[in-house]
Amino acid sequence: MPIAALDDKGQVLVDEQYRALNRSRTEKAEVNTHPIQALEHNRRQNLELLRSKRAAVATERLKPEDAKKRKEERKRTSADPKVLETELFKLFARQPSWPFAQLQAETQQPGPHLKSVLETIAAQHKAGPNRGQWSLKKEYLVGS
Fold it and tell me: What are the residue boundaries of the TFIIF beta subunit HTH domain, all occurrences included (predicted)?
C-alpha cells in the first residue's frame, strides 16, 4: 500500500501510518537533549575563582612592561657604515660565504642597514650550492 496517493481532485492523501511516523519524529526532535543546569552558589564562586586565577596567570605571562623591555632588547642599533664594512671584511676573512641571517646575528645590525652596506661590498648568490648566501665582490678579494 502506498504511503501517499492522489485523490480525484489531485490532492495528496497521506497514509495514517505515515502521519503517525512524522508526528513521533517531530515530538522526538522537540525534546531538549541538553538541559540547562543551574549552578549552586558555591560552585559558581569556584568557577569564578578558577577563571580569575587563569586570567592572573595569563597577565603575568604577558605583562606590557616586560614586552616593551624585550622589544627594546631585540632592537638593533645601526653602526657607522665604515665600521660595519670593516667588521664584514673580518667575517669574510673567516668564511668566504655567509647566509644573511648569520651575518645579521654576528653583526647585530638591523636588516635594511646591513643589506645596504652588504650590497656595496658583497654579492648575493642567486643560484648554485651557495644560493642565498653573500660573498665578497671580486674587487675586494685578496689576490685578484
Answer: 80-140
Collapsed DSSP state (helix, strand, coil) of residue 51: helix
Q: What is the pLDDT of residues 92-105, one digit of tens each?
A: 999 999 999 999 98
Nearest Cα to Cα of residue 115 among 95, 94, 101: 101
pTM for the model stands at 0.49
Strand-pair partners of 134: 98, 124
Residue with cell 645579521: 104
Which pLDDT tens digit goes with each residue over 119-132? 999 999 999 998 99
Domains contained in the chain, CATH given: 41-73 (no CATH), 81-140 (1.10.10.10)
Residue 73 and residue 87: Cα distance in Å, rounded? 22
> 3-state DSSP call for residue 139?
helix
114 near 104, Cβ under 8 Å?
yes
Q: How many helices (H) and strands (E) does the chain have?
A: 6, 5
Q: Which of 131, 54, 66 is nearest to 99 (CA)?
A: 131
Taking the C-alpha atoms of residue 67 and residue 73, their distance in angstroms, rounded to an integer, is 10
Cα 19 to chain centroid distance, Å, stands at: 54
Residue type, 66: D
